[in-house]
């Protein structure tokens, strides 16, 4: 693994407004993973019998699980990550009067919600290139979120994108230009347009033909890389479509571990098949509210917020790891 820690990713937006939240949401692997070796280095290659790492290790394997998810150029150490929350992100928010958020997917919406709730005096503008916010959930939920932002005085601009190469300065303030010809004045911006998959390192390996055109590893129903007996892939790196990726990323390892055990015990025929979860997702909107997409409809406000928004499931993540 590239980093020495596990991070509750959706808590990182809270850490930007409250950096000390990271003390609990960033958990060193060595604090819970005690029965095995941890190599903190980037995997750069795979052969049929070994994984090669950037620091020169070559790690032999009989069975392999690949879970490199998305590329996230954040610090490799917990101390460094906490410093990023404090110095790079929180200071940037606190010292700005006006903030532009580019991208109206779950990260942009959550960040706008955190800032609007904790810093109501700041002018927040959210620009999204699609026709509605949160396009991965239903239009009604998106509409409710838009109205929530209107109540919080967050300005939302849809169907336009920001050209970050044409930012100009006027009286110490930045002027951002959008593809719809509008200008937005803001002291700083945050880019929330999604992160690339961390699969480029597989392109020159024996797995190059197992990547689909989006760079995802194609897996079978047992979460094995298609056509391979002893290599599993789990989480965001796979081509499984799940509306709630974070929950899927927690369910995949359970199924893969169980299947791995069966495979090693010579019971390959008993392996289970993965079934994507129900079409449910919950997006926090600051510390108390949330919007939830359920299979039969959507809801916004304090009630769905009670489920997630206060602790952001950080307590559960810690408990699951026994810390
Ligand atoms: C800001 C944010 C908010 C989110 N909010 C939600 C939410 O509210 N609900 C939800 O369901 N999902 C959410 N998600 C998505 C969720 O975090 C992901 O679905 C989940 O983290 C995927 O887990 P993963 O283990 O597959 O990949 P990742 O979490 O991306 O982990 C991959 C790990 O592999 C490491 N790595 C990458 N390349 C290499 C390499 N070559 N060698 C060694 N290590 C490598 C990375 O450093 C990383 O630690 C959010 C994501 C982000 C970024």
TrEMBL record:
The keyword Oxidoreductase applies. Keywords: FAD, Flavoprotein, Oxidoreductase. Belongs to the FAD-dependent oxidoreductase family. Residues 50-246 form the FAD/NAD(P)-binding domain. GO terms for molecular function: electron-transferring-flavoprotein dehydrogenase activity; flavin adenine dinucleotide binding. It comes from the Eukaryota. Signal peptide: none annotated. InterPro entries: FAD/NAD-bd_sf, FAD/NAD-binding_dom. It comes from Dovyalis caffra. This is FAD/NAD(P)-binding domain-containing protein. One of its GO terms (cellular component) is cytoplasm. The keyword Flavoprotein applies. Putative FAD-dependent oxidoreductase. Pfam families: Pyr_redox_2 (PF07992).
